[in-house]
Write a structure and sequence with these properties.
CATH topology: Rossmann fold
Number of domains: 1
Strand content: 15-25%
Domain Flavodoxin-like fold: 1-97
Helix content: 25-40%
Order of helices and strands: EHEHHEHH
Number of strands: 3
Largest sheet: 3 strands, parallel
GO cellular component, one term: cytosol
CATH class: Alpha Beta
Distance between the termini: 55 Å
Keywords: Oxidoreductase
Protein name: Flavodoxin-like fold domain-containing protein
Radius of gyration: 19 Å
GO molecular function: NAD(P)H dehydrogenase (quinone) activity
Oligomer: single chain
Shape: elongated
Number of helices: 5
Length: 118
């Protein structure tokens, strides 16, 4: 089986990074082929803006709903997007690995929480 993992976590040395490494090792040990996109390491740009559509004339209005459809139909997607699409098409299975809620709540210390309780 061909497995593509999209990994999105700002710190790969924490639990999510360890889970990713174990997942890849286990899948490969079972004979599966694995590709990983570490979106933070790649500095993947998550927001959509004009830079994603360089073929668009400077004076044209960016219609975010239609621009990707037009770019796909005319084969004008940016190379980074094309590479990730190729991985998705290659894969039999896709795993999205991210956990923002868990690490975000750890930003508050226990002392911060208890100080706010009357």
């Amino acid at each position: 089986m061909k497995v593509f993992i999209a990994f999105a976590h700002p710190e790969s040395q924490l639990l999510n990074g360890a889970l990713l490494r174990v997942t890849v090792e286990e899948l490969e040990a079972q004979g599966h082929r694995v590709q990983v996109s570490d979106l933070y390491t790649m500095q993947w740009k998550s927001q959509v803006d004009r830079a994603d559509f360089p073929h668009l004339p400077p004076d044209a209005r960016l219609k975010v709903v239609y621009a990707p459809v037009e770019a796909t139909a005319s084969n004008r997607l940016t190379d980074d997007v094309k590479r990730e699409q190729e991985k998705l098409l290659w894969a039999d299975t896709v795993i999205f690995s991210s956990q923002f809620g868990g690490w975000a709540c750890l930003q508050t210390s226990k002392a911060d929480l208890t100080e706010s309780i009357p």
